[in-house]
Amino acid sequence: MSPRLYRGAKVAAEIAVPIAMLAGWQLWAVSADDPKFPRPTTILVEFRRLWLFSEFGTHVLPSLERIGIGFAIAVVLGIALGIPLGLSRIGRTAAMPHIEYWRAIPPPALLPISIVLLHSIGNVQKVSFIAFFCLFPVLLNTIDGVRGIEPTLVDTARSYRIPAHERIRRIVLPAALPQIVAGMRNSLSLAVIMMVLSEYFSSTSGIGYVLLNSKNTFQFLPMWAAIVLIGLLGYVLNLAFLLFERRALGWHRGWRATAPA
Amino acid sequence: MTEAALPEPRRRRAPELLDASVAILSVLAALALWELISRAGVISERDLPAMSTTFDALWSLVQTGDFWIAVLQTVRGWALGLGIAFALAVPIGIALGSNDFAAAAFRVPIEFLRPIPSAALIPVLFLTLGTNLSSELFLATFGAFWPLLVQTMYGVRDVDPITMDTARSFRLGGLERLYRVTLPSALPYVFTGVRISSTVSLILAFTAELFMGTPGLGHATNTAYSFGILDQEYAYAVATGLLGVAIHFAVSRAEHRVLRWHASQRRTAAL
User: Fold this and answer.
1) If pLDDT is split at 50, 70 and 90, which confidence band does A148 have?
2) Residue B147 contacts residue B193 (beta carbons within 8 Å)
3) Which of B23, B115, B230 is facing A189, going by the closest CB pair?
4) Which of A2, A135, B144, B261 has the highest local Cβ count within 10 Å?
5) What are the distances in angstroms from CA A213 to CA A200, A202, A224, B270?
6) 3-state secondary structure chain A
7) Residue B98 — φ and ψ, nearest 5°?
8) What pLDDT, on the 0 to 100 scale, is given for residue A142?
9) Cα–Cα distance between A81 and A139 in angstroms, integer?
10) CA-CA distance, A233 to A191, in Å (whole number)?
11) A57 pLDDT above the threshold of 80
12) Among partner residues A36, A117, A214, which is closest to B48 by beta-carbon distance?
């Protein structure tokens, strides 16, 4: 096979396989005729009816709001805590047992506790829950990023008597940024999961609530529409973040491309 | 040009001892703070039982057989989920990683299925497999499968082409190349996948127990919560965290043992 033909076949396969899988699902659903497994086309119609846009304000917006606020808190706290911890060895030694513990605990174990502790099943509890578990990827990556800075850079700045806050703003933060951004990306996909978990356990609104409620009332169509929406949300948020990353780290990529290997 | 890195001088004993004592002091301080906050009423004891009360409750739990059965049930969900995911993801990852065409064909479905939070599948499992072990295993396997698959694919793709060509010119057969070249060089990637997937598998085993009521620590936590037995609820959370830490250390140790020969393991990172 010539290389061009091969490339063409590859692209064709890349398009054909997903379509074939969707078609297979559709055919299977038609032949199974099980109300638990509606046809993809029916799900699509339900998806449009629910989310574009009759229930968008009541259930999608609250979820997006929780993800947004929780993620933002996690990023700010993660960077604010991570920089001093990255710079101080003793601080790191003291903080690491705690970080290791909270990172290893399965998040749902804290769902009931978060409700008791915060007296809330509303935004306070949901946002805190999301923020708490999204904190760790940002925090750990910030610590690592700060630790990985070339010591000569910081020493040079110090010998020029550049004050500490300027050193952090101009040297530490930019140098650690690529890794911080990598942590942020992990946090964002985590935020979607935490949103679903927290709304699936005692809530009155949100995509997770629709999922739970339609399951409890045996309404299979909205349930599948919610599942598709959650999948799509994870995919789209990740894509949006990649675009942001390309902009935020454009200088870094360019520098790396020209740097001698 | 940088010189070849010299082996780092062995760190002296004294700082290690200092590190350990700082870490232990920090944990003790946090526990003392917990006791204080609750006893002084900063957060009411009805919301946050004191540290001593919680550990008392944990101590009585530890003496019951039911507690250990719950722990073993959760560990079983974790181990089987991770094991099944490994058995599926590694062969598929090798196949997709070594075949450009197959990788392209399945790129879109993988990219689309991978970010789906497994938790979104709970209602479907509820209605199909029911509230039993198979649901828990499906959930844990589904979650653990993707990191392992992607890591294996990257690992296989990253095999040094010169090594591969050399093996070919020595007339090593396909199977032997797989065994002697591809697998060893992909192994560090696979183990990173195992580490990620191990965490995911434990989380999802627990999630299934909490939300679907399959027996285990998650179910026990939910029962304590529903009956308002606060100190037990906190005790279960502490126990679950300790289980998570134990599993994390076990997997890291296993990685270190299996990959002893590999450069990444020679100098253990401090943190």
Assistant:
1) confident
2) yes
3) B115
4) B144
5) 9, 10, 12, 47
6) CCHHHHHHHHHHHHHHHHHHHHHHHHHHHHHHCCCCCCCHHHHHHHHHHHHHHHCHHHHHHHHHHHHHHHHHHHHHHHHHHHHHHHHCHHHHHHHHHHHHHHHHCCHHHHHHHHHHHHCCCCHHHHHHHHHHHHHHHHHHHHHHHHHCCCHHHHHHHHHCCCCHHHHHHHHHHHHHHHHHHHHHHHHHHHHHHHHHHHHHCCCCCCHHHHHHHHHHCCCHHHHHHHHHHHHHHHHHHHHHHHHHHHHHCHHHHHHHHHCCC
7) -95, -5
8) 93
9) 7
10) 11
11) no
12) A117
**Lowest-pLDDT choice from A49-53, A68-72, A95-99, A170-174:** A49-53
Q: Map tokens 């090594």 to a residue.
A: B163
Looking at residue A46, what is its pLDDT? 84
CA angle centred on A78, ends A77 and A80, rounded to 5°? 60
> Which among A74, A136, A97, A179 is positioned nearest to B199, based on CA atoms?
A136
Residue (of A192, A186, A185) closest to A63 by Cα position:
A192
Set of chain B residues whose Cβ sits within 8 Å of the Cβ of A137: none
Q: How many CB pairs under 8 A join A and B?
A: 150
| Cis amide prior to A47 (ω within 30 degrees) | no
When pLDDT is averaged across residues A110-133 and rounded to a whole number, the result is 89
A18/B108 Cβ within 8 A: yes
Say what the pLDDT of residue B72 is: 94
Residue ranges for chain B with pLDDT beneath 70: 1-14, 263-271
What are the tens digits of pLDDT across the range A212-249? 888 888 888 888 888 888 888 888 888 898 888 888 77
Q: Which sequence spans correspond to the domains of chain A?
A: 38-248
Give the pTM. Answer: 0.85
Q: What are the distances in angstroms from CA B4 to CA A261, B1, B7, B8, B9?
A: 16, 9, 9, 12, 15
Q: For the CA atoms of A110, A116, A121, A126, what is the dihedral angle to 10 degrees? A: -30
Among residues A65, A221, A190, the alpha carbon closest in space to that of A213 is found at A221
Provide, as residue numbers in chain A, all residues whose Cβ is less than 8 Å from the Cβ of B234.
113
Q: Which residue of A has its CA nearest to B239?
A: A105
Question: For the segment A11-23, what is each residue's pLDDT rounded down to a tens digit?
Answer: 888 888 888 988 9
Q: Å from A109 to nearest chain B CA?
A: 6
Q: What are phi and psi for residue A55, nearest 5 degrees?
A: -105, 5
> Domain A38-248 in CATH: superfamily?
MetI-like (1.10.3720.10)
Assembly ipTM: 0.82
Q: What is the pLDDT of residue B3?
A: 43
Q: Give yes or no for residue A128 having a pLDDT over 90.
A: yes
Structure tokens at A158: 């110090």
The 10s digit of each residue's pLDDT in A102-111 is: 988 999 989 8
Q: Does B197 touch chain A (CB under 8 A)?
A: no
Which domains does chain B possess? Answer: 64-266 (1.10.3720.10)
